[in-house]
Design goal:
Layout (H helix, E strand, L loop, with lengths): L11 E8 L4 E4 L18 E2 L1 H11 L3 H8 E5 L6 E5 L12 E2 L2 E2 L7 H5 L2 E8 L4 E11 L5 E8 H7 L2 H5 L3 H12 L7 H12 L1 H9 L3 H4 L4 H9 L1 H17 L20
Antiparallel strand pairs: 1-9, 2-10, 3-5, 4-5, 6-7, 8-9
Length: 270
């Protein structure tokens, strides 16, 4: 094989072909592929709320420790909503902080974006049918020799082989919030709304503290069974947080306000 040279700029091509779950692809990646690990540097790698929980637990860190050591805030270009992305090392190649000699050191809990590669994923709203639709596309990078090799499989089969569906399901409502905000176009986002979205998206410990140690429960109706779950279970807390965000940001009726509430500063919906 020819020597591998890391390529930049226009050598990273997104194939402008919409793929479905039944579309077939060829891709193969393992240590014996010459370009192994070249895709693990200089990344703008977004972390889902579930990614943060899984990696944090794998590393046996607190949420604050993980966020400070390994992430940085990032504004999504279209929605202008803040999320956490993985912070690259401060070296010449800007390598992933979890890249080791043998590959990924957190492979069992690697982020959703890593599992998808070389596919990209998006959601769009079908207004005529009033439902969300998934779409996929292929990312072709000049250095990648794993493309067009290996066993042919459908997009759905590839997603299943990477454990994507079970990691994607818990954050679908979060993705819907981002997609809905994108559909509004370039509108000004209230600062308080940005803070609330960022807390729910990145830090379950702080969101839980906000629920139980502020006036939250004096303002919102939350049943005892839900309270018991979100006090102990971070995944249940995420699901509650997404529904609460939809309620306060879009005026949806998932988490209702009490009829009489203390005087607090209101959050203006998007």
């Amino acid at each position: 094989m020819e020597p591998i040279v890391p390529l930049k700029g226009f050598d990273k091509i997104i194939q402008p072909i919409r793929l479905t779950g039944k579309s077939k692809i060829l891709f193969h990646c393992e240590p014996n592929v010459p370009c192994f690990k070249l895709c693990c540097s200089d990344l703008y790698l977004p972390l889902t709320p579930y990614d943060i929980i899984r990696i944090r637990d794998f590393l046996k860190l607190t949420t604050d420790e993980f966020l400070i050591l390994y992430t940085e805030p990032f504004l999504l270009p279209k929605s202008q909503l803040p999320i956490a992305r993985l912070k690259m090392r401060d070296d010449a190649e800007k390598t992933c902080p979890f890249l080791g000699e043998a590959g990924c050191t957190i492979y069992p809990v690697r982020p959703l974006a890593c599992r998808y590669y070389p596919l990209g994923f998006g959601l769009f709203r079908n207004r005529d049918e009033r439902r969300n639709e998934d779409f996929y596309y292929l990312v072709q990078e000049g250095f990648c020799q794993g493309l067009e090799s290996g066993k042919e499989m459908t997009v759905d089969e590839y997603r299943q082989s990477q454990g994507i569906p079970e990691l994607e399901e818990p954050v679908l409502e979060w993705a819907e919030i981002i997609m809905k905000k994108e559909s509004f176009g370039p509108i000004e986002v209230p600062e308080k709304s940005i803070e609330l979205f960022f807390i729910v998206s990145t830090n379950p410990d702080r969101f839980r503290d906000f629920i139980f140690n502020s006036k939250f429960l004096e303002i919102f109706e939350v049943d005892e069974e839900t309270l018991k779950k979100i006090k102990e279970d971070d995944l249940a807390l995420l699901q509650f947080g997404f529904k609460w965000l939809k309620s306060v940001l879009f005026g949806e009726k998932h988490v209702q306000k009490k009829k009489t509430t203390p005087s607090v500063k209101k959050v203006r919906p998007f």
